[in-house]
């Protein structure tokens, strides 16, 4: 589970410092997502929900000079990183906001986009209802989210290393909260969205590359995701043993100059009812 408070605090700060690596880990997914967004005939006003450090917002703003993109995120650190790296664009703005309650009468989106930014709402039906209410008639939505943990080796392999990892509520806000398409369809339908579609995308999640890909991956895992959480919780010998197992895992997944893991996502599309 990763809740709003964590994104506003330390988790958001870590992502803001690691955006080059998080962009790299999502890179093949981003390409597919951008293709899907660009076939949309809805340019106009585009809001990127949970935009993080802004890569998707920047790519869409550059590809659609006829549109105006607004990236929204609850983490001030991530919005600062996004604003800094995207300077000089006249059709792109970023703002700190909780998308579940955000409304701006001067910016009525024709299109919502998101790369893995919509699985963290604590009340998803209310949040997507708000997004529908804040959007133009016939607005469109295109977002990505992870499929089941079993299809995401980067997560299951690390979870297997954590001593007595809690199984938890699979629907709690977090990376896998939208893994079940029936649940997502139910949430979106109840929130005023229709024509809900799911495209599966399989990709290589690159965790480490460069001169020493294993060291790069260990540094990445130390800051982002389930390993970082485990490292924070563990002490003494348990911590040392975990770091050793993490190194073994990274070495076992070093192929063609990169530490890589299987990853699986949905690209979800919908229209406002
Ligand atoms: C997994 S990260 C993805 C970030 C970015 N879209 C990317 O692809 O790098 C999830 C993002 O959702 C943001 N987020 C979580 N809850 C939010 C909310 N209620 N409103 C706005 N942003 C939220 C987090 O701060 C975080 O940046």
Give a brief description:
This protein is an alpha/beta fold.
Can you describe what's shown?
- With 273 residues, this protein is α/β, with parallel strands linked by helices.
- It has a domain at 4-148 and 169-204 and 264-272: 3-Layer(aba) Sandwich (Rossmann fold).
- Helices cover 42% and strands 22% of the residues.
- It has helices at 4-8, 10-17, 19-38, 55-63, 76-85, 124-133, 153-159, 181-190, 213-223, 225-233, 236-252; strands at residues 45-49, 68-73, 92-96, 111-115, 140-146, 193-208, 254-255, 258-272.
- Strands 1, 2, 3, 4, 5, 6, 7 and 8 form an eight-stranded mixed β-sheet that branches.
- Strand 4 (111-115), helix 6 (124-133) and strand 5 form a beta-alpha-beta unit.
- The longest helix is centred in the N-terminal third of the chain and has 20 residues, at 19-38.
- Bound molecules: S-adenosylmethionine (SAM).
Class of the domain at 4-148 and 169-204 and 264-272, according to the CATH hierarchy?
Alpha Beta
Largest sheet: 8 strands, mixed
Bound molecules: S-adenosylmethionine
How far do the termini sit from each other?
30 Å
Second CATH tier, the architecture of the domain at 4-148 and 169-204 and 264-272? 3-Layer(aba) Sandwich
Question: How would you describe this structure in keywords?
Answer:
about 270 residues; alpha/beta; Rossmann fold; eight-stranded mixed sheet; binds S-adenosylmethionine
